[in-house]
Amino acid sequence: MSTERKFVFDDMRFPFILIVTCFAAWGIAANMTDPLVKVFSKIFSMSTLQASFVQFAYYGAYFCLALPAAFINRRYSYKTGVLVGLGMAIAGAFLFYPAAQAMTFGFFLLALFTLAGGLSILETSANPFVIAMGPEGNATRRLNFAQAFNPVGTNIGVFLAATLILPRLNPATPEERAAMAPEALHAVQTDELQAVMTPYVGFAFVLLAIWIAIVLTRMPTEREARAEGPREVHFTATLGRLLGNRHYRFGVIAQFFNVAAQTCVWTFTIQYVIEAIGGDEAQAGWYLQASLIVFLISRFVMVWLMGFVRPAGLLTMMALGGTALCLYAAFNPGMSGIWAIVMISACLSLMFPTIYGIALHGLGEDTKFGAAGLVMAILGGALMPLVHGAVMDAYGAAFSYVVPGLCFLVVAGFGLFDLRSENREHVSQT
């Protein structure tokens, strides 16, 4: 088999495996964080909108740190970006310990912002790193394969939340908490916040082990290996080229709404289940776990399907399916609506890496800054949950799923746009 047809270059197989562990790592963090909206709203007796600032801090950090990551990658290397990102994420995870001692919502937001900021740098570096590890012709499929291990992490994250955090929430209602003596309330909150802290500190040690392994491994890409010394950064010229690329611009917009839809669907699953059929947070959390299992299986299925179906076509079909399932759940609260929400994860499974790969295709030397723009689009996960939370407070958990349904329509539009672009290119070549 020729070098051009290989999935990854021979000398990059072990580095590829190490980087894949990073994909799983940020999946753990993201989905261990999703239930915290419900957790903190209960611990601190806040509204859904107030507690949604958990996602604002988490995904807002992605927006703020993606561009600095691009400068690191351009100036030095993808490996440097990965190590800086992991280091910052380790610091953020360890901050959960003093946050639990301080017992303030703001301190937890700081810890989440630091953790997510590191993961932003990590993700901005790791995604294009995987693209650069092999031929461009199968880059989107290779990235989907690497991203297939992200839901392995998401399942672990949800499992940790469902077993270590949610069962330790005190069943007292906000009214009962308000009636407690200060000492009794303090004791309840201390136990609950210790439960929040424990898996994050454990996660910090896992990240530290990955950091050490990457430090000890030589992992240049073929292109980076040819370059000597620091790279010059021509940000203004690069930004001009990216903004002038209509295909890339639409990709960034699509990624914004894709992450918005994903975050909204998973963040508010627990609230939807409790409103639809009752139960407590721990019981409802298992439906979120089911969603992530569907996501995991579907990611590998989508990688296989891309051997037969154009990525943009598959993206379009899944986005339209996501809209249909969201609208069904919005107007049919109950068990069927819950399973519709679970199945939305099958539609989500291919979206992030597919949009990423399609939008970066052909960018050449602008790929590192282009990757930053796509990670900054994760801002959708910071802003749209606030909209979703406000709609939920006003109209209920079921109807609020109209919000991610509309987001999926934008993603479908990008898929159709890419299909038309490919068709025009094909016609011009014949």
From TrEMBL:
Gene Ontology terms, MF aspect: fucose:proton symporter activity
InterPro entries: Lfuc_symporter_FucP, MFS, MFS_trans_sf, MFS_TsgA-like
Predominant location: membrane
CDD domains: MFS_FucP_like
Membrane topology summary: Multi-pass membrane protein
Pfam families listed in its UniProt record: MFS_1
Transmembrane feature ranges: 12-33, 53-73, 80-97, 103-122, 143-166, 197-216, 250-274, 286-305, 312-331, 337-359, 371-392, 398-417
Record keywords, A-Z: Cell membrane, Membrane, Transmembrane, Transmembrane helix
Cell location: Cell inner membrane
NCBIfam families membership: fucP (TIGR00885)
Record-given protein name: L-fucose:H+ symporter permease
UniProt organism field: Paracoccus zhejiangensis
Lineage: Bacteria, Pseudomonadati, Pseudomonadota, Alphaproteobacteria, Rhodobacterales
